[in-house]
């Protein structure tokens, strides 16, 4: 039951407080990661040496903090209420529910008003592709894809690992995911050094991504979502983003994907969602946000039912 209480507390804190305004622990962790990377990343070293340095860097950044989280979890194990409160605060710091929605709606609003320049600026804050020359449809496509993908990364994967491994689980996931965002680039500086961070993030997201894709399908246009997932996910380079974005695009019946410019280079990307689906727009951004919210409700209700059944079975066995 403490897991359900922690989730409820985390969502309430996120809803009312949003992200911490003055200091977020992940900002401090990011600064630590920058310092470690500057010390250990030697771009001119041999490939295998760079990979070993990346593994050491990941270990130095993630393992000590995860062990601290484990110790806290063990110390509070005899106090379920306190464990639930601390767990709720940690989970709140690990998810980005309202942040994701606010960034997305900050793009949809100017699009609805015909203010393309403001929409380009807003979408540039949440995507890595070049946005200066995007038209309205391309801005909407980038934003919709980002909401669908980050729904898995920023919300549902964190909740999954909290439910599975408690406080240390969500700390391990969030720190690993942050390092992937910082070091997981396939450029000269990070191609080998960031290999460890990218692979661990892929592993940790494997199950949550597919649960998210299934959840998108269940609360959206199920048949289209499943068909898009089956046909399009294998065509994407990312083993986890493919299922999530394909199922999400199908769930809201929008046609996404296609060419985009990243770091000055044009990349041809496969189709996402039905080709005959709706064109990306401010409406598709809002529908993606609504889809994430529906999945969040479904997960909350499902978690409560599972816990209630577990308690009932345990009570029945004891009697």
Automatic annotation (TrEMBL):
Coiled coil start-end: none
Main location: membrane
GO cellular component: plasma membrane
A GO term, aspect molecular function: threonine-phosphate decarboxylase activity
Alphabetical keyword list: Cell membrane, Cobalamin biosynthesis, Membrane, Transmembrane, Transmembrane helix
InterPro entries: Cobalamin_biosynth_CobD/CbiB (IPR004485)
Signal sequence annotation: none
Pathway in which this enzyme or protein is active: Cofactor biosynthesis; adenosylcobalamin biosynthesis
HAMAP family with a match to the protein in the record: CobD_CbiB
Task performed by this protein: Converts cobyric acid to cobinamide by the addition of aminopropanol on the F carboxylic group.
Family named by the database record: Belongs to the CobD/CbiB family.
Protein name: Cobalamin biosynthesis protein CobD
Organism of this sequence: Neptuniibacter caesariensis
Lineage: Bacteria, Pseudomonadati, Pseudomonadota, Gammaproteobacteria, Oceanospirillales
